[in-house]
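Quick question: what would this complex look like in 3D?
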Amino acid sequence: MSEYAGLRVLVVEDEPVVAMCLEDILESLGCETVGPAGRLAEGLALAEREDIGAAILDINLAGERSTPIAEALLRRGVPIAFASGYGAVPEGFETVPLIEKPYREADIDAALRGLLNGAE
Amino acid sequence: MSEAEPGHEPLPVGEDEFRMIADSAPVVVWVTRLDRTRSFINRAYLAFLDVPYDEALVFDWRRVIHPDDAARLIAQSIAGEASMDTFDLEGRYRNAKGEWRWLHSTSSPRRDTQGRHIGFIGVAHDITEAKEAELSLRDSEAQLSAFISQSTAGFAQVDLEGRFVLVNERFCEIAGWSRDELMGMRMLDITHPDDRARNLPLFDRAVAEGTSYTHEKRYIRKDGGIVWVNNSVSVIRRPDGEPFGVLSVTLDVTQRREAEAQMRKSEESLRLATESAGMASWELDLETMQGEWSANRFDLLGMPRRDDGRGSIDEWLERVHPDDRESVRAAAQRCFDTGEPYTIEYRVCRADTNEERWLQSHGSRIDYSDDRPSRFVGVSFDVTDRKRAEDELRASEARFRTIFEQANDFLITTTLDQKITSVNPAVLAALGYSEDEIVGASIADFMAPDQLALALDAFNQKMREGGSTRLTVTVRARDGRALIWEINSRLTTDADGKPTGLHAIGRDVTEARRAEAHLRLLVDELNHRVKNTLAIVQGIAQQSFKGVTDPAIARNAFEGRLAALSEAHNLLTREHWGAVSMAQIIGDAVAPHGRDAGRLELDGPDLPLLPKTAISLALAIHELATNAVKHGALSQPDGRVRIHWAKTEAEGRARLLLVWEERGGPEVITPTRRGFGTRMIERGLAAELSGTVRIEFRPQGLVCTVDAPLPEGAE
């Protein structure tokens, strides 16, 4: 738990129930949640403004793609992972890990660990 | 001539009497003295010379002797006279008419009573006819002899026991034995053993009955060789009719026999060849209209074979199918009459099984340069199988033609350099070109370079490895539409397996591909939705069970939420995941909680909502309704809930204002802990609508106010 102490994780997820679920998982892992953002503009604003250690982005946000958020975070050197039911990362983000929905706490844990290790 | 009687002077008869006798004799008579002068000549003598009597008495005979005979006759005459005996002369003398006549004279010495020689008396008679006959005979004998010895024919005479007694040179040459060797041998000794049994009865019968015969047989030559001879044999008889020998005229016919054997052999080979080829033949002497059929011609017509091989035209025509009979008869008759050969195909009904068979027949008239009558020769063979195969092929061609014409699939043939040689109507219809515009064009005219490259790759693969290829290419129709064709093709080859062209069958898969892409999209979307839904379910489950100690309560909450979710999905599915009615979503969400009892009042326009928003709204309304039933207005019999919404406007933008308002319930106490429901409504729905959601726990009843931009899809 203490592993992620103080880690601020941006949650971009347009499905309220799923977002709440992810918030709970992150909370139980000891992370601090930023968001959740359910819309692109909202997510983009958080990505640029907040102090963020990692991000988990739903790909499809009410018909828009979250890739601008991803680009903004990557520019800032924030490690990100996509979460999606589509089974594939967007074109151009092949190196970004994918967490397939539905996910369990262990999936998020493993993804975060991967992100942090990769960032070191 | 009788010897001259002993002479007296005067004559024993009177001189006149003698003269009369002598004159009446048909022979020349003369009497000479010792000095060779004539004392008497008769009338025949005078007639021969036709000179006066006195002149005739002194005529010098040497003047009329044939030059060829003169020397001989004079010498013989001198010798005869000197012999003082009777002597004969024979020679040619010229008569008064200038003709050479053969005269045979006999002269005898004359003596007087004392026996003194006083001269000669001579008689000559004309033997010209006899002599000429003799000479002629001798000539013909000489000719015959020459003929016999020089003849190409051999002559052999045997006695009645068959022993050779006389043979000519030619016979010796033919038989291969010398004359000396043959003498003493019997003709059977040199006859081939196989021919003796046939030869002997003929010979015996000839001897016994005098019948002539001609036969052919073999002699065995001394060198062991065999010679074929043709012998004409006849019996030779004595003048009294008694046979004393048998004469054979022998011709060497070995070459002819060999030629015949050769011909028989080649005829036999020809017959075997034709028969083994299933060919039956028949011949006809056009003068007699008689002829023979080969054995298999009977077989062909299903008739029993005949020993004599005879078959008539009518018997043939009788077997010909009635529908073909007249044309067949006409063809044959025309050939008989004009010599025009024919080749016909017709049906026959076999005599034995009545089976219908097809025959092909060729007939020709053979005319000879000599006066032999023309012959007709015909051959026939059974072509039923070929006919059936042809019919089959025709039918199959027709079938394929129909398929070709009517197929919905595209059928295309091309040359090895991609020139189109044929297309079926389906191709024309699909591309919108006429046949003239397509046939002769290159396939390159109907596809883009990259597509042509695909086609050529497939073509080269077939050229390398044979077989067929399946290819999907985009072709261009006349109006520019891109059509996706799936084409199976293989090379056509000649009998040696050398490629001659290409045969392709294609099908338009444009629609299929579009449908396929659409389906893939749908499946992907479905997968996505299922995963999303599962994620939602997972979230609901997590929230429902989190921190709840009574599992029954947690399960009830979970089931209720799932039911709300499910109800929303039902609606979405009914609307094909298009926009759904806000009234409907809210109505469905509150229905399980007493809407029917009139305790829930819905009031608002029928705004359309996007599916995702609809689900969030349904779940939020469910949470409010559940809370109302458990703790709020609906937990009391008189409690009411009013749900009203409206499109409003603020700062020039359309907004949605929705209010959930409870009344008549127990006094509301603000909860100390906010559960999933509150969170779902205040945060989830707010996030979903990008607006604000406020829950007020007023003592007279809970009020939930949603203020958000008018959701997408609801404008």
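Answer marked as accepted. Chain A has four helices and seven strands.
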